[in-house]
Task: inverse folding
């Protein structure tokens, strides 16, 4: 072999070793040693791990650890922190197995750490094409991994399911989960374990896709089953008897052209005793049912909880929280399994607080409706009928087919994806909630576009001066709500200035942990809601904390990084939090002494160019900006602290504005709009941005 070949091979080997950074074999041969039996046993014989997304299959996000408790939590300090590669929204719930933490950041990058010391053991970057970010409605986030029998599973933003070696991070196999690559599918959710299978859904309901969940054999990656959540092409046979039932609840045939929606983009729960997997199903595509299903209909299985057999995907039962959903009231929010004493009987239930503002308790074996009550301000329905389980909609207040209607909750939901927690000690569910209103308006001339939101909503009235929008912004507040699922009443509530705060953790130390939009990690007493401790995070937090123990010491970790749905499209509401996105892992322990480095100072805001365009051109630009730009750069051209605020562009950027939009910036996820927008349309968008820069300067 020539010396040149030897050098080349040595260089390649060095690159591989550097990329995967494997754990020393003497350190842990059993890394990732998780089995279904071990997960089940963890509920009764805790070893201080966090083995699945909600710690155990019941998804309660409750830990029996109590070394950190209400008496000593004030001694909690930062143990270690780690800066992630991409400063975008961070939503992962870390998995911790025998002292090793597996977690994810933006663009589906996977990290493995020594959970006690914070040392990076390996990193896996799936090399997601940054331009796919234009199909991610709510930032390029990832909610974490699954770990089973020596493998780490991650679903990538561009639609693949990758199985990695838990020791080295090297990819073992990859499957393409997308049924139609011509559609703008993405994945942001965490894979779930269901028996011998790994299950993942998809996202893209705002862009025109058809929802489904797919199970893959954990060892081989071979597809085990696929469950579609809405009917397909009506000219072809339905994939299941369940879809034959569902098809009768849809009107017209446009839904197939439009996608239909119903994406399973986040929550699932697995009951190994019943062998049932529960799927949280999303909104319709488009949002407006007037366009999607003219003539009405429940549009099954939109906004539903669907139970299927875990090994076959066979339909068992469903419960629809919002029939005929026209509000983006997804039922993809966190699902929790518990046993509640209701009257004289103890029942196995499933609980959910979906976007629509009602807290639901159902029998998880049969899907029987037990109870539902409002947990936030709700105007779209007065109550849920106790006999039928159907909401009593206020038709006059919600018919936006011909005029704008301001409705609560908003598409952000009374509760969004941010996980809640149930403590069997207090009997309370702790959930992050918000009161927000939204002006819904049907687009009678809706046609699916090549890019941007396909929701069949007319652009909202001028955001800078419309009274309804001002009301929406002024009335947007967040809460940490302690809810009694038996009485269906609140036990206590903490109010925040801003909505969409992070997920929740509760512990046997009588503690509840949450990260906040305004950049804090906070602990409260679980029984009373008294604030006991807080620490600065230097960025907004939307992810849920976890806790674990290594060598007799308890830790609390939260993934910090501002972004997500509010951070990228929230406009004035997001900007009010005044935080930047700095993506880190933050880990705390009693007596921790670490400090975060100071943030760099803000760059000066340049003066905007002169406003030369006519009012008519600016109005055209506003419509186009709302359709194509607001999903990344913020509503009304107000940046939320994640992606560049276009009002603050310098002269050079303005001179290159048309070229940037036409060509894109692939490295930053900015797609090309060549063939989508004409030069004069881009200039109209620029005129609107300049107008908004002058508006901001005048405030």
Result:
């Amino acid at each position: 072999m020539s010396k040149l070949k030897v050098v080349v091979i040595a260089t390649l080997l060095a690159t591989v070793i550097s990329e995967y950074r494997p754990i020393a074999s003497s350190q842990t041969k059993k890394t990732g040693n998780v089995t279904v039996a071990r997960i089940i046993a963890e509920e009764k014989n805790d070893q201080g791990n966090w083995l699945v997304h909600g710690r155990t299959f019941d998804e309660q996000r409750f830990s029996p650890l109590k070394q950190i408790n209400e008496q000593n939590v004030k001694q909690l300090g930062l143990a270690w922190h780690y800066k992630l590669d991409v400063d975008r929204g961070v939503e992962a719930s870390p998995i911790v197995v025998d002292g090793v933490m597996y977690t994810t950041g933006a663009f589906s990058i996977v990290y493995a750490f020594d959970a006690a010391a914070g040392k990076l053991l390996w990193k896996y970057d799936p090399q997601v094409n940054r331009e796919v970010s234009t199909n991610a409605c709510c930032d390029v986030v990832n909610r974490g991994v699954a770990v089973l029998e020596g493998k780490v599973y991650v679903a990538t933003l561009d639609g693949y399911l990758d199985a990695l070696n838990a020791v080295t991070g090297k990819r073992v196999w990859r499957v393409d989960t997308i049924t139609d690559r011509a559609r703008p599918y993405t994945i942001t959710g965490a894979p779930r374990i269901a028996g011998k299978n790994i299950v993942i859904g998809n996202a893209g309901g705002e862009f025109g896709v058809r929802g489904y969940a797919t199970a893959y054999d954990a060892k081989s990656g071979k597809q085990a089953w696929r469950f579609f959540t809405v009917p397909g092409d009506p000219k072809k046979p339905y994939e299941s008897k369940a879809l034959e039932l569902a098809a009768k609840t849809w009107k017209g045939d446009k839904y197939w052209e439009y996608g239909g929606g119903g994406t399973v983009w986040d929550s699932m729960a697995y009951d190994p005793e019943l062998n049932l997997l529960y799927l949280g199903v999303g909104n319709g595509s488009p949002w407006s049912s007037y366009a999607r299903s003219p003539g009405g209909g429940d549009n099954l299985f939109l906004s539903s909880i669907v139970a299927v057999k875990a090994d076959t995907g066979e339909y068992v039962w469903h419960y629809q929280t919002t029939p005929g959903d026209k509000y983006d009231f997804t039922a993809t929010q966190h699902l929790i399994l518990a046993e509640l004493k209701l009257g004289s009987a103890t029942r196995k239930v499933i609980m959910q607080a979906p976007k629509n503002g009602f807290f639901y308790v159902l029998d998880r074996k049969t899907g029987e409706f037990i109870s539902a009550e409002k947990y936030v301000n709700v105007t779209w329905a007065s109550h849920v009928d106790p006999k039928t389980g159907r909401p009593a909609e206020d038709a006059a207040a919600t018919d936006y087919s011909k005029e704008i209607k301001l409705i609560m909750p908003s598409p952000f939901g009374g509760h969004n994806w941010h996980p809640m927690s149930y403590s069997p000690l207090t009997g309370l569910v702790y959930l992050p909630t918000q009161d927000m209103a939204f002006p819904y308006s049907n687009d009678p001339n809706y046609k699916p576009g090549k890019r941007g939101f396909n929701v069949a909503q007319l652009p909202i009235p001028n955001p800078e001066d419309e009274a309804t929008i001002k009301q929406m912004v002024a009335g947007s507040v967040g809460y940490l709500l302690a809810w009694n699922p038996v009485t269906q009443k609140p036990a206590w509530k903490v109010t925040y200035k801003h909505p969409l705060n992070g997920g929740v953790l509760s512990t046997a130390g009588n503690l509840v942990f949450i990260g906040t939009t305004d950049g804090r990690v906070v602990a409260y007493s679980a029984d009373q809601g008294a604030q006991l401790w807080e620490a600065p995070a230097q960025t907004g937090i939307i992810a849920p904390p976890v806790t674990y123990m290594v060598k007799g010491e308890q830790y609390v970790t939260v993934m910090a990084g501002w972004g997500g749905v509010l951070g990228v499209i929230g406009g004035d509401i997001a900007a009010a939090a005044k935080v930047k996105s700095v993506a880190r892992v933050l880990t705390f322990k009693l007596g921790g002494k670490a400090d975060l480095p100071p943030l760099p100072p803000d760059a000066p805001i340049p003066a905007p160019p002169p406003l030369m365009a006519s009012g008519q051109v600016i109005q055209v630009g506003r419509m186009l900006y709302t359709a194509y730009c607001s999903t990344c750069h913020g509503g009304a051209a107000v940046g939320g602290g994640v992606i560049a605020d276009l009002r603050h562009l310098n002269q050079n950027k303005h001179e290159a504005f048309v070229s940037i939009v036409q060509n894109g910036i692939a490295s930053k996820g900015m797609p090309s709009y060549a063939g989508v927008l004409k030069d004069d349309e881009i200039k109209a968008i620029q005129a609107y941005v300049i107008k908004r820069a002058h508006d901001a300067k005048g405030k």
Q: What stands out?
A: The mean pLDDT is 92. The two ends are 72 Å apart (CA to CA). The longest strand covers residues 76-83.
